[in-house]
């Protein structure tokens, strides 16, 4: 129903091309992180979403946002959590030398990439992989996985005890 970003980026143009309203809430336009968190919460709340999806959203959501949308925020992360959380997952996986990494779709909680996992799919690391090449192969998987999970949650909801989450079967 809307695209909200934390910076000027291609996502705003993609949204416009798709006829979807979009706006940016930039940290630099606010006195501090807490004020940005409140402003972001108010902007997103005005769209009254049932579900918030963070896709390439490279900011840690704060207490105001989490309080308003707790249990209704889905994130996509380019690693097999709990391995390699944070903003540099693909580089970290390569540096570690894992043979397998992948994509994780999870509910967002007050931690960073610690929320209940909804879906995961592995991606093999190739001997000549660099960060860009591996990340692009992960993105191919995550674009499909995220759409599948969001569709399932939209249709059937999600049940979570805070550590584990289940999307009820058909
Ligand atoms: N409260 C939460 N907020 C967000 C989560 C989460 O799990 N809990 N997931 C992120 C997405 N993400 C990983 O999937 C992620 C994005 C960014 C960072 C991070 O360290 N950001 C820094 C700034 C980094 C930068 O600007 O390059 C920051 O916010 O200060 C960690 C994890 C979405 N939000
Ligand atoms: N920790 C959060 C994180 O790393 N998110 C990742 O940023 C990429 C954005 O790709 P894009 O710019 O092509 O949409 C995606 O791979 C997403 O999983």
TrEMBL record:
One of its GO terms (cellular component) is cytosol. CDD domains: FMT_core_GART. Residues 3-150 form the Formyl transferase N-terminal domain. Pathway: Purine metabolism; IMP biosynthesis via de novo pathway; N(2)-formyl-N(1)-(5-phospho-D-ribosyl)glycinamide from N(1)-(5-phospho-D-ribosyl)glycinamide (10-formyl THF route): step 1/1. PANTHER family: PHOSPHORIBOSYLGLYCINAMIDE FORMYLTRANSFERASE (PTHR43369). NCBIfam families: PurN. This is Phosphoribosylglycinamide formyltransferase.
